[in-house]
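Supplementary notes for students who missed Thursday's class. We covered one full example, reproduced here. Read the sequence, then the structure, then the short commentary at the end.
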Amino acid sequence: MVYRLSPDSSSTEFVSLATLREMLKMQEQMVKDMFESVLSSVNMRIDKVVKSVAELKASLEYSQQDIDDLMEAADAIDNMDEELEDIQRGLHKQEEKLEYLENQSRRKNIRIDGILKEDNESWPTTEAKVKEALHEKLNLSFEPVIERAHRVGVTPRSSSADGINRRPRTLVCRLRDWQQKDEILRAARRIKPSGIFVNEELANGTLEKWKEQLDKFKEAKRAGKTA
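Structure (token representation):
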């Protein structure tokens, strides 16, 4: 599969998913290296200033030049604080770009909970189970075209008396058509099928932001607002 990096309709540059992931890793490492390098330089400069101030205090001989040096040191620290803030803002923007690209790479993905797993289950069996569950539970008018499906996460501990795990791991499915994904999600929200849960697959950073807003969302719903 390939993805277009830019939303600009005039761009025709596409890359594979593997290349996109490698680019994301390289970009993230470059940002981290830059941040660590600047931070190391700033720390060295601060240590030098602190040492100079300590020596001046110990001598108690404040010449006009010493006072000027202290003023310059104070200005330097203020400038370094501003530099750090600029770096943090730049790093935040890079994280947002990486999160956006990660969400774009998962644009056709859905997460399904509740589909049981057989021992040594094969890919064709998993695919057939997903299609059957979506068709029966959501009353779809079309057959989803699934490129691949795999289970993620750690197998939950059993809560049954016989020790057998009755709760299957989450299935991540990649559909060939993102429009089918949107129709499936709309049907799941409308019907709220029993036994399975269908959700969009998003980047971890996006999920964390949603969780932070969950309490506000519930409060608004209880207040009768459209949230």
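Commentary. DSSP finds five helices and six strands in the chain. Residues 1-13 have pLDDT under 50 and may be disordered. If anything here is unclear, bring it to office hours.
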